[in-house]
Amino acid sequence: METNYLAGLSLIAAGGLFAGSFAVPFSRNRDWKWENNWLIWSFVALVAAPWIVAAMTVPGLLGVYASECQSLAVVAFFGLIWGVGAILFGRGIDLLGVGLSMPIMLGLTNVIGTLMPVVLRDPGELLTSSGIRLIAGVSVIVLGIVFYSIAGSRKEQDGPARKTGAQSGFMKGLLVCLLAGVLSPMVNFAFVFGAPLQQQALAAGTDPVYTSNAVWSIALTAGCLVNAGYCIYLLRSRKTGALYRCGRWANWCWAALAGVLWYVSMMFYGMGGSFLGDAGTSVGWALMQSLAILTGNLAGLFSGEWRDASPASRRTMWLGLSCLLAGVFIVAFSK
Q: Which string of DSSP letters, residue by residue, matches 260-272?
């Protein structure tokens, strides 16, 4: 296997580890509401970090954008759609926890984000042997999502929520996670349609490994408009803005750390994709999401989210996780 290909896979694998663990710092802010955490996350992950990194790595950044106005608009459009998915992603974590929500959302994100770049590039590829393997892998991933959803429903019935007669809200959380999984891959579409921006960045003297930074700063900032707007609405309607005044500096740091971890995951994905070529948006995306699923699940286990689950629920959860990883393995090696 070529050195560049191995380097690309390594960077994307690192991105998957960060993507699966970025939400863990939120668990340290129990005295803040979701909107308090997510607004800080939005500013750091979607505006501050992308623009700082892009300005440092892409010479003549504004000139690159001025020369590709049409691509700029397309990238921003997909960024706005992804912004809705990011809100639902955050809400899914809040409703179902890291360990249950991440495999469901990232599994769907994996399916759509892996298949659609191939469909957009050449639908006929799906009829080839590699395309059939790709579809088979996606089918196994969907099966894993079904098993994981069943495990989550059983877990809610096993835990204290059933004993106290409280409403778990599992179905609401599951619906949010499914919608998040459908919309979240739009950031990969921005990456695909941002190729002309990357070419202009390359022509301006940018190191090839950093050209994707010219895409992230636009796509993620567009997504921030949706995320920040929704958070501000919640802060006003729920009167939770006051929590910022009485919060500790540690609260701000934990929320900001979550933003840094998430952006680093996308930066590594873009850097690794530059080594993989066309496979970066399919094979690379599958690898990143698979490791994110594994990391998110382990984080949920270590934080005790499955502590009250019955053995049957745990077995179903592991079956779902096994299907998810097996499906992603098939997708990753479909080329």
A: HHHHHHHHHHHHH
